[in-house]
């Protein structure tokens, strides 16, 4: 049966069509609607011979193994290289014949699917589309093999968003037609180039013969007036390296350019092709990164930060019921804390010397006040003092730089300063708590001065073997360096915002569903009760009818959706999303789907998603060289296997070690314990240090 179709062209795209434009019907692998392709110019064929290469898609065919085995057996009288060439030629012949059959099968299936599918059995159409998708998967393997860059990861497919970005880049900076000087319209590229060249040659053919100042007595005053006007226009609006050079009283107006950039990026035309899950990634990866550079220096006013609905709940981690968005105000404080940390840790920097000369000439940064005649930069950096007080403490070295009573030096998560130690002067240093002449705690002195909680914290501090200076560290990072990530969570805990809003196991299961991201986002909105159903809209004051679109009952979340066991959760999530999608299509586009149709479409969508991106061969990457203990031990005299254990009922670390020689022969085993309290990483480090000390005393001295 002949098929007729009508192609409607957008008004702004009619100029790209040429006389040799072609149109054709494509095959839709999933949908029932076949797309129409319009090629603005006829394709040019470049036929030429090329070197044959092995096709990875042949690995999916079980006949390949038989061809290789049979070819290798037939060349039994040949040497190895000749057998290899003989087998390769057989594979080449088999592969070419296989590709010819595949191309013929593809053309035949395409012709069948291009016919009127309404008159064909739906099961036959489904079978043909499965074969079509299999052929496309093999072609995808072939294209991946030819790709010079790393291939996409599973699920990172081409979408309408990327398609429109490519189209936008192709459409811009392209002149299709031009009006020449005689009024005629031409689309010839040579005519367009000649017209441009002649126009600009005529435009810039005038050569100035004298300046404005020559022979004009009023010109000096004119220059002064214009210069003064430009100066007034530029004050307060110039930027340096993307930051405002002058900050006046209206902070909201000065930093409004950040809000404008964010809104311009979020409201661009191509973002409407993103799903809700795609917009979530856009907010986290792009929009929230726009003001990051400015937040390193300035404390942004609250009105500049973008506030979405219930933003404090949206900023909660995904495992606790939120969306994991970043709170810009808290993130701003964490970034400014990094500048304060630079002032504390690097007293030789230019920043430290400039700020100290003006704001704290006789003290330090932690005790400096804001002052009266301060700049906005100093006010911004000064706001990080409270954060640094919460997260900065001293790491004990020789103890000579730390005051016992006033400096933070205890490794406690609640308080770094001892709780009112008795009978101790303010000028006493931590080094006074050591045994004289040794880097070891004087246990009797510590027990007499501090409370039991502080005693446990003090004894948990690992002291160095050799004297070294005390050092300020960031408590919430293992290496002691300031990290914006840990500082951000510290700010949240200081504001009481690090709270759970739901059952953690439930939300982890929701975000672990094997469904498309947009379906997971829908299920999150469903469980949080934020879907705009009619009962939710009426509860928020919107005048809408309460009746369900499918029946006469009140439309609510409980009415539209139902619960099933968790082993069917992924399929349930897709069905629930499709029900909501069908409801919205009925509201806005008056499109109706019957329940069986909804069920079939949801099942097809879920099945296609499971087959999409599975069993894909990744692009070849650099191989890693695995080195076992045996190969490493050949260059050593002995090996030590160390382990440790922590005890919740006492402040002790237990450790043990087994020593072997280079050939794996047992030498000796040791075990012991040491006092202390901390994380398992600290316990492992202390155990390793004890074993190294034993090895130094035993093996090295014996050698």
Automatic annotation (TrEMBL):
Question: Which residues does the UniProt record annotate as the domain Reverse transcriptase zinc-binding?
Answer: 502-565
Tell me where on the tree of life, at the top rank, the source sits.
Answer: Eukaryota
Q: Which PANTHER family does its entry note?
A: REVERSE TRANSCRIPTASE DOMAIN-CONTAINING PROTEIN, REVERSE TRANSCRIPTASE ZINC-BINDING DOMAIN-CONTAINING PROTEIN-RELATED-RELATED
Instruction: From the Swiss-Prot or TrEMBL record, give the protein name.
Output: Reverse transcriptase zinc-binding domain-containing protein
The record lists the organism as: Manihot esculenta (Cassava)
